[in-house]
Amino acid sequence: MNTLPPTSPALAIPTSEPLALWGGLECTVARIRDQFRNQIRETGHHGRIDDLDRIAALGLRTLRYPVLLETISPEHPDRQDWAWHDERLARLQSLGIAPIAGLVHHGSGPAYTSLVDPSFAPIVAAHAERVARRYPWITHYTPINEPLTTARFSGLYGHWYPHGCGMDTFLRTLVNQCRAVVLSMQAIRRINPAAQLVQTEDLGKAFGTPVMQYQADYENERRWLSFDLLCGRIDRQHSWHALFRQAGIGDDELAFFVESPCPPDIIGINHYLTSERFLDHRLSMYPGFHQNTTDAHTYVDVEAVRVDLPARQIGPEARLREAWERYRLPLAVTEAHHGCSRDEQVRWLMEVWHAARRLRAEGADIRAVTVWSMMGAVDWNSLLQHRNGFYEPGVFDARSDPPRPTVLATATAALAAAGEFEHPVLDRAGWWKRDERFYRPPTRSSKLRVVGSPRRLLVTGASGTLGQAMSRICHVRGLDHDLVSRRDMDIADAGSIEAALRSYRPWAVINTAGYVRVADAEREPGRCFRENSEGAALLAEACARLGIAYVSFSSDLVFSGALGRPYAEGDAVDPQGVYGRSKAEAEQRILAAHPGALVVRTSAFFGPWDIYNFAYATLHGLAQGQRPRAAAAVAISPTYVPDLAHATLDLMIDGAEGVWHLANRGQVSWHGFAVMLAEAAGFHADAVAVSDHGAVPGVMALTSERGLLMPTLEHGIHRYLHDSKEHWRMAVGQGQGR
């Protein structure tokens, strides 16, 4: 590893100013083969200038924002369209938000250039000069986002254009990008000498078994290359100098960086939970994992966080400390994002925030933490290579119109105003610090000591499918909770409710209890209304008095099916039976008693953990050689229970109120649902018969005008088949499989 002194001395730490909070929008324009992915368009920000007002309302005053070559000069470098950027940047200026202008973000440039084109750097620099002339008030720039990461994905792993898979292409794309940074800043500073470079990079670290330590050392030297180039450190003494030369990088090209160093004014560290890797030659311990090879060994490359490593060696604090000690230049976390459940997202943000504050207290010059992905991101779980529409919410959830603030928005506003944020979900550490994360159980417990008693949820309906599912998902998400039955609390008895709430002291109640036998409700209306309406309302009243968040579930049966299209939240209820009337009355009474309550309407749920659902009955019958029959007259919205539980918890943590429809996307009849199940499990579609028996056609399917938060029904079925623990699987292949 290079040990030359820093290119420039450390700047004085601005101790008089608190750690700043910045924001950023996922704005990648990546070329994959001959197609371009544009995250600003895919998240909808392109058509919503008022997103900037939403961001400003949180108290943010610095925003990483795209002024991208690919969107301004898409057809020819000499032809520009500034209209969109003029309007947005003027709005930012009027809102008092300073942009950090990004010029190329994980891109290879428009189709007329690429990362291996010798003219790439001059083209980017010419764009930079035009941007600086048009917007002379912009003072901070990121000409190329994450050049090393982009070089790996585009030149070494083949994910993005030009889809290179070798060292020569990797180092060529890296050198061209870093040269573009230097030339761009030279051009910008000719216009604005005070302009500052905020150079970002995804900084991880490789760990490994003793056998693979040589490969880990190699990758750990590689991770600094973009910063070392810009700081003029890659001279003939640098450990990678010979490798650059072997890859065809000329002495004059490397000398350019030594003679014209462009050290970042702020080093921007992007660190994700997948950034740190563990290299292991013991292949049998990781069945099914992709294998890599060196000249000497075959190994797997897995997330280091899932391996039992010393806690102080991994995580954002360790990586920030390394960057500070190596360069002694001002730092900022320029992306803090985790694509997971809402509780885990806010836990990660707060971990990064506290890590930055601790290092700052030790003397490191850390300027800011950036809340990333303000409007979310699309398909980053496949590195943009597949168009699955997989959306990860950020500070706002763009699946709603207008985008709905999540708990991250609440956290952002609190951190921007006071530097602190508190929420019950923060009583537990994120999954990356809980023992269930490990691929193999550790030899010692790594559970963190919890100070005090973590605040708990209360889930009713211990004997029901939904109550059991909510409990399972809460456990997976590290949400401490109590699952209670009628013996513990009778929700239709005010005294029992009061006693239970005083005893359990929950911060939120999720009510899944109630009368569920739809057909029997016609002859037991009193019992149905007592459990579904009276009980739900009494529980809501008690929660409102005690300041407890409250969630309850309703049904598609509050509708008649006569509307002729899927029902949204604003459609008038029109129940046709006792069960539907009891749920409609419950909704009204709950929201009257507790205006901040969340009422979730759902439909026809099926899950992997019990046999009491249509999916199990259908597949079990098929596996036994039977021919199940299902009605085709009425359209429904089958709902996968784990998806329902996750979406409900996310809404609850966000503080959502009122009625929400949560069902997997896609309407289908019972017969159509059975056919989808059959085909997905390997049976013929005609193995399911139609049985309507004079049923009246109708549409009981649910949609949402508040936001389509659930995955597709196809996706739910796929995961049901993968996750189901019931024994119908054992019989597949004995029936009419393909």
Please provide a written account of the structure.
This protein has two domains: 381 residues, TIM Barrel; 275 residues, Rossmann fold (3-Layer(aba) Sandwich), CATH 3.40.50.720. It is 36% helix and 17% strand. With 738 residues, the chain is of the alpha/beta class. The radius of gyration is 28 Å and the shape is elongated. 51% of the residues are buried. The protein has 23 helices and 31 strands.
Describe, in short, the structure shown.
With 738 residues, the chain is of the alpha/beta class.
Number of DSSP helical runs: 23
CATH fold-level topology of the largest domain: TIM Barrel
Report the principal-axis shape: elongated
Main structural class: alpha/beta
Compute the CA-based radius of gyration: 28 Å
Detail the poorly predicted runs: 1-13, 731-738
**Straight-line N-to-C gap:** 57 Å
Topology, please?
Elements: E1 20-24, E2 29-32, E3 35-38, H1 39-42, H2 51-57, E4 62-66, H3 69-72, H4 83-95, E5 98-105, H5 120-134, E6 140-145, H6 147-156, H7 167-191, E7 196-202, E8 206-208, H8 213-222, H9 225-230, H10 241-246, H11 251-259, E9 266-270, E10 277-280, E11 291-293, E12 298-303, H12 316-327, E13 331-336, H13 342-362, E14 366-371, E15 377-378, E16 391-392, E17 396-397, E18 404-405, H14 407-418, E19 457-460, H15 465-476, E20 481-484, H16 494-504, E21 508-511, H17 525-546, E22 549-555, H18 578-593, E23 598-602, E24 605-606, H19 614-623, E25 629-630, E26 634-636, E27 639-640, H20 641-654, E28 658-661, E29 668-669, H21 670-681, E30 689-690, E31 698-699, H22 713-723, H23 728-731
Parallel strand pairs: 1-4, 1-14, 4-5, 5-6, 6-7, 7-9, 8-10, 9-13, 13-14, 19-20, 19-21, 21-22, 22-23, 23-28, 24-27, 25-30, 26-31
Antiparallel strand pairs: 2-3, 10-12, 11-12, 15-16, 17-18, 26-29
Helix pairs in contact: 5-7, 6-7, 12-13, 15-20, 16-17, 17-18, 19-21, 21-22
